Structure prediction request, 155 residues.
Amino acid sequence: MAFQATVSQYAAALAEMGYVTYTFDFCGGCAINGKSDGLTTEMSVLTEAKDLESVLDYAASRSYANPNHIVVMGCSQGGFVSALVAAKERYKIKKLILFYPAFCIPDDAHAGKMLFAKFDPNHLPEVIRCGPMKLGKRYVEDAMKIDPFQAIKGY
Prediction:
């Protein structure tokens, strides 16, 4: 039987190894059981990158944290976001852990298909039903602006 750990389980294991850990929900990033504010129809990869930058600023400012030894971990879209932020010179990300990073998001947006949603990328609806989550047109527009491999090559 395969074992699939949750983010909080990874954080607990890393804390046991001596890391200071911090987990959070992206604003508008959860369709179900999220703890952050924001609407899924206002969220995109780029808004989540800004959220992660705010979290990193907060974490690096803590007296017990070492801003020169930041490790960022992200899964799926969070992995894509983590890689985008890690590539920025603003942060000195010492280690980057990516679980199945969704670098396919821009390609899917250009193709007009994301998970269960299909749409015309040249005539985007205001709201796109993507499984249990409603995405806004901004999500697709922002995704189509990104070449993930070009954006992260500096890391």
Remarks:
- The beta strands are 70-75, 93-99, 113-114, 117-118, 127-130, 133-136.
- The chain has a mean pLDDT of 88.
- The longest strand covers residues 93-99.
